[in-house]
Amino acid sequence: MGHLPELDGIRGIAALMVFFHHLCFTGFDVAPWTNPIVRVLFWLGSFGDTGVDVFFVLSGFLITAILIRDRDNPDYYRDFYWKRVLRILPLYAICALGILIFIPGSGRFVLLCVFFIANFASTLHIPSIGGFWSLAVEEQFYLIWPTVVRRRSVATLRHWALAIICGVIVLRLIFAFFGHHNYWQTYLCCDGLAIGALLACMLERCQRVGDGLAARRRTLLLLAGSGMTLAGICALIPQDPRRIAFHSAVGATAITFLCGSFVGLSIAYSGRAAMRWLRSHVLTFFGLISYAFYMFHIFVRDIYDHFRGPLRANDMTGYIARIVIVLAITIVLTLISRYAIELPIMSLRKHVLRRPTKPAVAEHL
User: Fold this and answer.
1) What is the pLDDT of residues 91-130, one digit of tens each?
2) Contact of 128 with 121, CB cutoff 8 Å
3) Which of 6, 35, 48, 311 could cross-link with 17 by S-S, CB 3.0 to 4.6 Å?
4) 3-state secondary structure of 84
5) CB of 326 closer than 8 Å to CB of 23
6) Distance between CA 270 and CA 6 in Å, rounded?
7) 67: closest CA among 196, 188, 192, 210?
């Protein structure tokens, strides 16, 4: 499997969803606003955190596909973790250092970031800052998953992935009995990574017999149908204090299934005319800069709000200017980061990897 531009487009969608979630919904009091556009964007923005679930599915698919491909490499672990370090750590360290320097009292949170356990900040009653929690979830998953991929057959990997998916769903329901609906802990949200891994296993099985993932379209459509059914059930659950946790648990499963089916169908029908919109220059552009875009945009928003001050109700000029200026500054910073930091450091792969990376799914990372 070569480079799939549809996956860059999906990543671009996910990055923009998270951006508008934080600009139009999080920390924004819509009550005094009467403008219908603002209210619609507020409602749409409430779904924007789904972009993180899309990232999880994409990461689970791409990383598992690479691990399966390289499982016979004698430097399997060394190469895998060097790639992760060169891709993730430089920008991660810069953002963590910036928080430590410019945000008073952030030392404990930065310490959690150092050990990639920022997703447990709320459990430890430490204020969480930025998007570090989702990176922590991924890195915790990848402390264990490479060993599973290395030592088990692809058929067994499918069973492991299914077990993780079912286990997480059951755990969320158990936690719902106790009123818990914060899914930043890895054991409550890694089903997206597992669904991505399951897609990689399905693709490997299809390719072994000379087919593509389109051969499993019934499975993918069943996954999509299950997600839509659960979403319908979720809509029927009242969001009162007694049932909000169950509403969140069912909704989280629905979102994971829908994201998994969306990514799977996009892979299955890659190159088709129906997927042309995912290959658009705008979406693939945001997909290529998505990591830095994801990491920077919250800080740009907070700095803008600090100097600009709170928006007055129904100040549409200020509302639009806030979105446009934050978006523009974030894009500029991400481009600087990409060409001054990320790409130069990624070029060091040739000096630390034992063998060149094959031109396959690794191009997406």
Assistant:
1) 999 999 999 999 999 999 999 999 999 999 999 999 999 9
2) yes
3) 48
4) helix
5) yes
6) 7
7) 196
- In the Cβ-directed half-sphere of 80, how many Cα atoms lie within 13 Å? 25
Q: What's at 342, amino acid-wise? A: E
Instruction: Find, among 168, 97, 87, the residue nearest to 130 by Cα.
Output: 97
Structure tokens at 53: 């679930």
- 141 within 8 A of 193, measured Cβ to Cβ: yes
Rounded Cα distance, 5 and 277, in Å: 10
Q: Are 259 and 192 in contact (CB under 8 A)?
A: yes
Structure-token pair, residue 115: 């050990």
| Spatial CA neighbour of 211 closest among 250, 258, 267 | 267
Task: Spell out the residues 6+ positions from residue 75 whose beta carbon is closer than 8 angstroms to its own.
Answer: 353, 354, 355
- Measured in whole angstroms, the distance separating CA 327 from the mean position of its chain's CA atoms is 19
33 burial level (CB within 10 Å; 0-12, 13-18, 19+): buried
Q: Count Cβ neighbours within 10 Å for each residue of 71-91 and write b for 16 or more, e otherwise.
A: eebeebeebbebbbebbbebb
Q: Encoding tokens for residue 219?
A: 């499975």
